[in-house]
Here is the input.
Amino acid sequence: MRLVLEPQLLRGAVLAEQGAFGEAAACLREGLSGRPGAIRLRPYGLARLAEALARQGEHGAALMAVREGLEEQERTGQRRWEPELRRLEGIALFGLNRIEESQAP
Here is the structure.
């Protein structure tokens, strides 16, 4: 089996780690709209996008990315990124001042 990795997902993740959150979000969005082979890593890309958005203070958009990632995992049955998506969901909810909801298990 050949693993196809969308380079823009990796580039976006690296840019986010360097603090270039706006550019990271743009790269991640581009990577998520890229070739169909990257679909296996869609939850990973959505998690990285949510993190970049949350770090920019765009908590509503981050929450939307997280929820999309969780839905994708539910649809495919692959839950590799669920803990990270749940962590980012809590951060986004906290940023939206939905404190009680962010602390729910």
Q: What stands out?
A: The chain has one domain: 7-102. The chain has a mean pLDDT of 88. Residues 70 and 82 are 7 Å apart (CA to CA). The two ends are 36 Å apart (CA to CA).
